[in-house]
Amino acid sequence: MSGNRLSGRLLSTAFGVIVVAAMLFPLYWMVNQSLQPGTGSGNNALFPVHPDFSVYAQVIGEQGSSLLTSLAIAFGCVIVTLVVAIPAAFSLAKFPGRAVTIVLTILLVSQMVPSIVIANALYKTYVDVGLLNSLPGLILADASAAIPFSILVMRAFMLSIPDGLLDAARVDGAGPIRTLVSIVIPISRNSIITSALFSFLFAWSDFVFALTLTTSGKIRPVTLSIYDYLSSTIQDWAPVLATSVLSALPAVVLLVVAQRYVAAGALGGAIK
Amino acid sequence: MQHPRRTRLAWWRGPSAGNRLAFTAFLAPAVVYVLAYFAYPAIQNVIMSFQDYSATTFFTGEAPWVGLQNYRDVFGSPIFGTTVLNTLLFTAGSIVGQFVIGLLLAIFFSRRFPLNSVLRALLLLPWLIPLISSSSIWRWMLDPESGVINYVLLQLHMISTPIPWLTSPSLALLAVVIVNVWLGIPFNVTILYGGIKEVPSELYEAAALDGATGVRAFRYITWPLLRPVVTIVLVLGVIYTLKVFDIIIGLTGGGPANSTQTLATNSYQLSFGQFLFGQGAAVSNILIVFSMLFAALYLFRTRRQADAA
Lengths: 272, 309
Description:
The complex is a heterodimer.
Chain A: H1 3-34, H2 54-94, H3 99-110, H4 115-129, H5 135-158, H6 163-171, H7 176-187, H8 189-205, H9 208-212, H10 222-230, H11 237-257, H12 259-266
Chain B: H1 17-48, H2 55-60, H3 69-76, H4 80-109, H5 116-122, H6 125-128, H7 131-141, H8 148-155, H9 172-198, H10 201-209, H11 214-243, H12 246-251, H13 263-273, H14 277-308
Helix pairs in contact in B: 1-14, 3-14, 4-9, 4-11, 9-11, 11-14, 13-14
Domain ABC transmembrane type-1 (chain A): 67-258
Family (chain A): Belongs to the binding-protein-dependent transport system permease family.
Transmembrane segments (chain A): 12-31, 71-93, 100-123, 135-157, 237-258
């Protein structure tokens, strides 16, 4: 490689860093301002020269239960989603027939329905069946967004499982359930992890269902806490932004720890 | 048993109906789920939109049939025109901004340079954090008195007085579009980058021999081959933008003076703000018709591409 080419590439890198820095500036600003109590009066420093973490202690004290509620809902959503979606994905990957195309189309389209439209009717149903203001109610509602996505992601992978392998299992006397548990699930591990990550993020980030399917304030996910801040007059922005930082943590952690899986999911549900 | 269609598995050739049953059972929970959480609410919305479904209904259980009254109320409401116009402007503005910036960045990232994949991964962050959290950051950044955006613009002498981004009826929609563009860029970059990478490199080599490089190579090779992906990104973009709710509610709540009210936020405010669930359902139905039109377009385009391939 000539020196000229190399410097050109480094220039590209420099430009790329500037672009990404600009795109991520709001996130930097969120962290920076959350470390400066009294944010909201006058201009604050561009860098947290004297970072003050006291606001985090305050926020964890005030919003700890909301964070736990969000965690419970997110984990619940992951479990419900995987239990429903794994067998369905397997079935749709290996089931011969035209019904498969119809079901896949319905799953694809269901992801395009605005949640607020669903919430409008779901509220009435939840009042009737007593799921309003309940963890199971929110878990089930959030899983409705995660299930179609997960089925499409996992099915795309399961298509590549060789039929010979499944036939061999059958010859050895394994039934469908045994085949699913001992062969399909271990092989599809990566796509299952991707689905689990996104199911977690969907539920953790959900605001529409949290807002419309709770009325008492008894069940309050962290997204609702942030909204409650935003709907009141804000004197000091530091607690609001600190809560926002905490709510953004799972996404940051997952992107750092599981970048491979996130990248796989980024294209998963939308493009077959 | 002979199947006329190609069977994928020897399982199906056996006399065992048990496997067929098992596969149906595997699929059943997902189908029930989709029916309960998509089909049933959609039907409910249609029914509710013909009923006087309001706060009293939840106490009395009575929801009298009112025919098309909800639709008359909605269409006749002074803010309905504004709502539809805002939805169109918000969608158009968001799509243009996201797509143009997304395409430019996708082209840039298709070059090879150190740290490329790390930077592209970082770009996904705005897309992964909760939308309501993003709206809180931007609410603060756009604050007229203490927000960093006005601060920078003032320092650069690009403006002489602070701009009331979210409190001015003439600016709020623009501000909400800017935030939504920021949110949509990662998705656009990811899909378009994938499309650009699919273009066979031999084509560029052949074109380079004929002296077509850079902009000309893009115009005659990349763009024509990228067109199917572009269509998909645009259609999906419209579908996702019609769904946008969290961001607008978090930034402006549909205000000031309904200047950022869209079909999605309007449906919410009718139902959950004023407890006029019948009217909320009517607006929901208008929104879902738009969404499904574009969903049909998406299916049509993807199917055509699959057939062409």
